[in-house]
Known about the structure:
Radius of gyration: 21 Å
Pfam family, one: Glyco_transf_15
Strand order of the largest sheet: 5-4-3-6-11-8-12
Strand content: 15-25%
Membrane topology: Single-pass type II membrane protein
Number of domains: 1
Order of helices and strands: EEEHEHEHHEEHEEHHEEHHHHEEEHH
Shape: globular
CATH superfamily: Spore Coat Polysaccharide Biosynthesis Protein SpsA, Chain A
CATH architecture: Alpha-Beta Complex
Number of strands: 14
Subcellular location: Membrane
CATH topology: Spore Coat Polysaccharide Biosynthesis Protein SpsA, Chain A
Structural class: alpha/beta
Bound molecules: guanosine-5'-diphosphate, manganese (II) ion
GO molecular function, one term: alpha-1,2-mannosyltransferase activity
Active site: 236 (nucleophile)
Largest sheet: 7 strands, mixed
Distance between the termini: 45 Å
Amino acid sequence: xxxxxxxxxxxxxxxxxxxxxxxxxxxxxxxxxxxxxxxxxxxxxxxxxxxxxxxxxxxxxxxxxxxxxxxxxxxxxxxxxxxxxxxxxxxxxxxxxxxxxxxxxxxxxxxxxxxxxxxxxxxxxxxxxxxxxxxxxxxxxxxxxxxxxxxxxxxxxxxxxxxxxxxxxxxxxxxxxxxxxxxxxxxxxxxxxxxxxxxxxxxxxxxxxxxxxxxxxxxxxxxxxxxxxxxxxxxxxxxxxxxxxxxxxxxxxxxxxxxxxxxxxxxxxxxxxxxxxxxxxxxxxxxxxxxxxxxxxxxxxxxxxxxxxxxxxxxxxxxxxxxxxxxxxxxxxxxxxxxxxxxxxxxxx
Length: 349
Ligand code: GDP
Ligand code: MN
């Protein structure tokens, strides 16, 4: 136990207790957040929840990336929130622009059509650059070059539970390379040719497909079609070399040349998920069922009392999305023969 020390401030006496900090070695790991300056005050709640529940004990670094220069205010406020070292990087224009083979008129026509069809973010040019960046470039940023592991954090998210173990060491010690909290089905209109393009890639580069892959998570008919299941990439804990390696590099290049980041509206979530399912050993993918998570409009909340109460989760298990019909996490457990928590069916609808 820590003893208190007495501090006099503003004419008051405060008995303060030092916070507890883990003293062992750390992994080469960092949080990573892509954000705009105007996201600052939506982001600090996400940061506070990660710091309070996990990082104040471990003090991992935090890398912020932006296609524009961060303001002094953004840097000052976020640095004050974070126990680890903070770093601020600018995305180079090559990582946030049209490749030369893209027909920008055609891309603009697609945006107009998707606006008329009311497809979510379908009319947005910046959203497409964002999705392409998260798919193919964040892990190549200078700021991330000395790290092996990352945990992605977005504005307006929360983790609901105490995490009293080193998540990065957990990944390493248990042979995991990709971790998620929520999985869900994608809007088909945003990815019409993604699976066809993926199948071409699989045929052309069979050497990149892992023999013990998890095709049965993303396809219900042995690869004929995509079942739309993907890990929600606004939360990710992952191994950076998964994306930096030759298999994913070839996959991203193939997708990028096919043009669907601009001619459709391919999201980084289905791209990362299909890649993780096909390029990894299925045992290398982990569901973090004990963290609890929120990104509008879904909560992950451990339904198992022991997990939820031991970790002091501040969420309502009746709002948990994990075991609902539109979630793909039930399938993840089924195809991998992982036992589901007792009583999960009661939370299915
Ligand atoms: P959604 O979760 O799919 O609704 O998309 P978000 O609006 O949350 O965007 C995903 C992530 O990319 C968030 O971390 C945003 O802060 C970030 N982001 C989105 N668009 C831009 C952009 O134009 N510039 C920058 N720097 N970040 C962006
Ligand atoms: Mn978001």
